[in-house]
Amino acid sequence: MRTYQHPDLATVTIEHALHALSDPVRLDIVRQLDREIEASCAALDGGRPKSSMSHHFRVLRAAGLVHTRIAGVQHMNTLRREEVDKRFPGLLDAVLGVKG
Asked: Which residue would you say has higher pLDDT here, 20 or 42?
């Protein structure tokens, strides 16, 4: 069975996280996951091609922002909010426009 690699956030740089968040599609995915807690890749694709979405999820995972688990035929995604907030305090609130 396929598994995904999720980096230890201690190894992720702020530049890497900001790069992942700089793309409007990836930022939209993060916004949706912040609201919905968990969602399948299909629920987050916005009608975009699967190959394009695979790339975006790969970038988000590599930056330590998203965790993907396999549940049968679905790939379920969650925002690693608590871990990201600990590593980069205030980053997601600032990027997502959350008022403190």
From this structure: 20
Find the angle CA(59)-CA(64)-CA(68) to the nearest 5 degrees.
Answer: 75
- Chain segment 83-95, per-residue pLDDT in tens: 999 999 999 999 9
**Structure confidence at residue 99 (pLDDT):** 61
Residue 44's alpha-carbon distances to 38, 49, 79, in angstroms, are 10, 11, 13
Where helices occur in 1-100 by DSSP H, the ranges are 14-21, 24-36, 41-44, 50-62, 81-87, 91-96
Mind giving me the DSSP string for 57-81?
HHHHHHTTSEEEEEETTEEEEEE-H
User: 40 in helix, strand or coil?
Assistant: strand
Where does the pLDDT of residue 13 fall: very low under 50, low under 70, confident under 90, or very high at 90 and above? very high
pTM: 0.91
